[in-house]
What we know:
The protein has 520 residues and is mainly β.
Amino acid sequence: MTGPTPGARPEPDAQEPVGFGPPPAPFGPDQGPRPRPRPRSRSAGAVAAAVAAVVAALLLIGGGAYGLTVRAGVGVPGPPAAGPSGSPSVDQGDGKGPGGTPAAYDPNAGIRPGEARVWLRDNQAEVAGSGTSQYGPWRVGATVVAAISNGLTAYAVADGQEKWKLPLQTPLCGVPPAPSTTGVLVVAVKETASDTSRCTHLQQIDLTTGKAGWKVPVPRENDHDTSVEFELAISGDTVAVARPAVMSGFSVTDGRKLFGTSKTNGCYPSAFAGGSRLIGIRHCPDPNDTRGSGQAMVEELDPATGSARWSHKYDPDWTVGRVLSMDPLVIAAHHKDKKTWNIKAFAADGTVRSQTNPGFGVSGRCNGFGNASGFQECYAAAADADTLYLGAGKPGTSLGIDDTNQVVAVDLNTGKERWRSAEQPKGRTMWPLAVEGGRVVVYVSPGSAGEAGAVVSLAAADGAAQPVLQSPAAAAGAQGVFYPHGLRTAWVDGRLFLLNGRVYSPEPRKASRAILSFGK
């Protein structure tokens, strides 16, 4: 992977506690200049010949590895769409602070026919010195929304111009992976702005308009129900709230409490996963061995009542790590002492459809090793009815590896591998994003040789490759600081959004890349 932009800060571990700072400051100049490559002049015939040659080379390789100079498969990008009404876009300065020459760094410099136009935004909000976690990206209509500890910002999908900004009175202390199907988000906020303040309230936010709605306190379920952070998930009209040994459910529409419970049949709730269904994760201590690790339990819950529709207990000492897919339900778990992990696929009634101990490695973000929260934080997994597609690599010395330079297809009916894509060159990682039209859409990160990021598709049947999108070479440096261990992604309607998991306050010559997008 390419090194960071000069002056950019290394990305710390994405699981660090959220940093809290003062309310966001107005956006200032873009910083972190780069030389602008000079576009080369080509005749129309030469361009057409070059494009045809690249496509032919890619298709000959099929399911194998290729250089990913993907310059075909999309039309020539036109000029950016007209800017939306609202706040102005970030001023692109010369890295010396306000008043500099605009457009010193252009990620589209030297863009070639067939390449996808890029837009990039840096964080311009003042945050704590250690930085702050960033959440999203959530595509809602013509906007994409991101959140940091002290507020939310929406950007125009077409060109990244700011559409609205919503400051929060107190810092975030819980964010669900996704909003409701109607574009409504419910987040948890602290009682005060103090770093040690408890997480006490839920706040509704309409991502379509950027307006805050109802705000309600979360009643304590027992005398021990205090926490500085909530684990949230939205399913249907329910936002489920988990904290140590306690869970509650509230209406997304009006904030009414729907259910609340702590211990159930000897098992304590610990987390949720949401979306098309509501999945609860519980810990079940062994009453005869209070010092033992006990058992993990997964259950599907009725979002309206919190009652279990079915439950499944893992063998002792196994830890549920990640929910890789909600429909079909696929879960990764790991055994720390045995240094192994497994994948279980569940049928609609909760019976185990298949299970396997994979012969490949994945990032800790996808099996949960070393990551105790964020049960839907794997951004390198996609599934159709019968197959799971994972960004993978050679097993490392631990259960969590970062070098996921290929895609592995796992048959959910048998647990066996169906195929593996060839390994990408050093530094390039592969992130399955979605399954569309019988093909797996995959993001390929920039490489150590200076290649820019791209999107390709693999045939679901055998992994045969086709180009989808290629970003310009000038964008490689900016994409290179969207580090895999903190990256969050979204693929919607032929457009890719990359969100850095942690951002910092703006400083001269130290750009903190926040969000980048390219696509149709």
